[in-house]
Design brief:
CATH topology: TIM Barrel
Strand order of the largest sheet: 1-2-3-4-5-6-7-8
Number of helices: 9
Oligomer: single chain
Shape: globular
Bound molecules: zinc ion
Radius of gyration: 17 Å
CATH class: Alpha Beta
Mean pLDDT: 96
Low-confidence stretches: none
Structural class: alpha/beta
CATH superfamily: Metal-dependent hydrolases
Number of domains: 1
Amino acid sequence: MIDTHAHLNFEKFKDDVGAVLGRAIDKGIKKFIVPSSNLENSKRAVDLARKYPEVYAAIGLHPIHAKEMSINVLQHFYTLLSAPKIVAVGEIGLDYFYLGKSSKYAEYPSKEEQKVVLIEMLKMAQDTRLPLILHCREAYSDLFNIIQNEGIIGPGVIHCFMGDKDIAKKFLDLGFFISFTGNITFGQSLNSIVKYVPTDKILIETDAPYLTPEVYRGKRNEPAYLIEVARKIAEVKKIPLVEVESATDKNAQKLFKI
Ligand SMILES: [Zn+2]
């Protein structure tokens, strides 16, 4: 299996990345994509990819960090792109979840600020012909419209998918993959969308350290728990677990060329 979205570059893993990778490799995880949310952890993702043969990096500016964008930061991203084993731009996208709510983000970026950053990041991906790792919360139609207006047609993945069938179909029609994470194990609410997305279009991920699968709830999530996501997909689709494993491996290899 391949964990296509694990934030091993985040604070929560700063003391024990080696041990975390070891436990996952023992459970049959062969490769790891480490996506980023800002310049600092993009550099860390690149360092991890240099250090560990199984790790690949994605770099980018997440919408919640949109206020960190500047010409200088953008130039740094472009410079960083020459590093080895960068397989995608991400995670990038739109996140309206905290708009108008109080949050830990002192100054939450407006929709407009998020859109400006997203467009810069889409250009960076186009310039380098790298696939996209898209993040989206409560903004699926705006995200789809921007992707369409910018003339983007895959390849890419929309990670931690929580939208409905209509929006899934729109992204599938543009050639995107759809990725599921530990939140599909929280009850039944995502079963119908899991059932809907064809197996040859699904990626699996942990989104570690977040979204710990139900059976491990309360613990820090880590790539060793990826099997729980595959298991739930197999159960919902009524297909053998090995079929989910081999299909999602193939999909990830195809998208990220790893
Ligand atoms: Zn993420």
